[in-house]
Amino acid sequence: MAGIVRNCGLFFWLAMVCMSPASSAADTLSDQRTQFAQAWQALYQRHMTAYHTLKRKLGAYPLYPYLEIGEAELRLKQGDAQGVDDVLARYADIPASRSLRIHWVRYLAAHAQWSRVRAQMGAHPYLRRVLPEAYLQAHWRALPREEMLRDFARYWLAGGSVGKALAAFERQWRSAGHPTRDECWTRIVHLVRKGDWRQAKLLSTELPKVEQGWFRQWRDLAARPSRLRQWDAWPDRALARAVVVDVLVRLARGDAEAGWRELARWRDVLGADEFLRLQRKIALYAAKAHRLVARHWLAALPRDAQTHETYAWQARLALLAQDWRGLLAVLDRMPVRQARKACWIYWRAQALKHLHQPRKARELLATIADERGFYSFRAAKELGRPYALHARSPQADERMKLQLATMPPMLRAREWWLLHEPGRAASEWMLAMRHATAAQWRAAAALARAWGWHAMTIRAAAKAGDFDALAARFPLAFADDVRAASKATKLDASTIWSIIRQESAFNARAVSRTGARGLMQLMPATARHVARRLRLGKAGDLFDPTLNIRLGSAYLADMLHRFGRLEYAMAAYNAGPSRVQRWLQSVSVADPLVWVEAIPYNETRRYVQQAMAFRVVYDWRQQQANSLRPARQVAEQEKNQSSAL
Q1: Which active-site residues does the annotation give?
Q2: Which pTM does this prediction carry?
C-alpha cells in the first residue's frame, strides 16, 4: 500500500477538516471524496474498523474500486490470496488492477502454481516484461527437458541474468555437460557488452588457464585502451575481434583521433563491415568533440554508409570552419527530405549570403519565415517580418465533451485530479481515450483545460493535431509564482514559462528517469545548492510549484550570470555547466547560433532551440492576455528577445 498512497499528508488534512455524514451514503460527491480520503488513509494505516465503516458509505463513489483493489493487495501482502482473482475479474479495466495482478502472479510463482502463472502471462503479455524470471520458470517447466535445455542455453549465452529463481535450470544444464569453452566465451562477450565485468570475471575462472590470462588482458586493455597498440592479437580470431571492437570504442570515446589511427592497424582482424561501422562511429565521436578533421573522415565514407547523422555533422563542422562553399556541397549531398528541413534551409541561406548572393538567401529565408519554430523565427527576424504564430482556437463539440466527462474512467480521473494525484488521474484518462478520434481528443483538451489540468491539455491538443491551439498548448499557469521569480532573478517571465513548458509541460509532479522533479525538473542536489545560496535552509518539497519555480529560476539565472548568454544558460540547465564550459572551449566561433547547432547532444540542442522558440510564443501569449507588464516593457523585451534569437 505504501506505493499506492503517496500523499498521506493531504488525506490526513482532508480527514481532519471535513465532517463525515451520519447517513449510510454520503450526501454529496465532495463528502464522498473526503470519506474516500479517510478510508484510504485508514486502510494504509491498517485501521480496519474505521476503514470498513467508511467503505460501506462509498459504494456509489467513482473511486470505490480502488478500495477493493487496495484491500485485496493488502491481504495478498499478508499471505492471503482469497478473493484476489474475483477482484481482478470485476475490476480488470481499472489501472490499479495492474499492480494487484503483478503481486498476485508473484504470489502464484512463489507457491509454484505454474499453470496459473502461464495463464496470466498469456492473457496479459506485459507480465512477461515485468516478471521475466517468473515467465521463464513457468515457460521452461512446461517444455520437454531437451527443449528446455536448448531454450535455457540461448538465454544463458546471450548474457541473461541467472538469479536464485533460475538456478535450478542452470544446474540441469550444467549436469548435461555445459558450458563448453566456446559457450563460456560467448557469454563473457555479451556480459562485457553489458558492462557486467564482475559476472564475466567469475565465469572466466571456468576457462582453460591460458585463456583466463586472455580475459585478464582484455580487462587490462579496457582499463587502459591506449595499450592496444602493444597488444598481440589472440589466435582465436573471433575473440580477438570482440576485444578490438570493445577497446577501440573505449579509446575513441576519450581520444577520437587516437582511435582513428589505431583502427587502421586492425582492418584484417575486424573484417570489412565491422571496420566500416567503426570508421563511422569514431568519425562521429570526433565530430561531436568538434574535431574539424572529422569532416574528411565522414566525407570519405561510402554513400551507402552515410546516414542523416553523418550528413548533419559534416554540415555542422563546415559551419564551425566557416567554410560556406563546403557547407553548400554537404547540403547538396544530403537526402532531399533532410535538406528541406527549416534548419538546413536557414543555413543554406546563410552560406549564400556569405558568398554574396543576398537575393537568393532572402528567397530561401522567405520559404520558412511563415512557419513557427526556432529557425523560422530567426528567418522572419532577418527579413524584418513579424513572427508567424498562426494561432487559432479550435472549437470542441460540446455534446462530445459532455459524453467524455460522464464516462466512468473520466469520472475517476476527475476525482483523482481533485485529490492531487495527477499520475493516477492520467492513467484513468488514457484508459478513457485509448481508442479516441481526433475530434474526441479535441473535446478532451477542452475538458482538461476546464479542469485546470495544463499537462493533459497540452497532451490532448497534440493528440488532436491542434498544434495551432497556442492558448491551450502554452498556458500562462502559475502566473503569481512566475511573476515573483521574474522579479527576483531579473529573468523575463517568458523565459521562465518556456523552461517550465520544455521541462515538464506544467506537470508539477513530474519525475524524470534521473530523478529530476517538479515543474522545472530540478535535481535534488541542485535544489539543495540553490536553496543554501538563497538562505532557504533545506530545499523542501520540489513538487511545490512556488518553491520549484523559485529555485529553478534562480538556478537558470546563475547559469546566465556565469555564461553571459541565454542560449548557453539554457544548455547548462539541461546538460550541466561543466559540459557547456567544455563545449565553449572547443568551439571558437563567436556566433551563438552556430554554437547551438554544434551542441553534441541531440537532446540539448533541441532543448535550447525549442525553449528559445517558446519564448516568442510566451511573449505573444502575454500580450494576448493583456500582459504581465506595461506595453512599453513588452515591446522592449520583444526587441531584446529578437536580438537573442
Answers
A1: 503
A2: 0.90
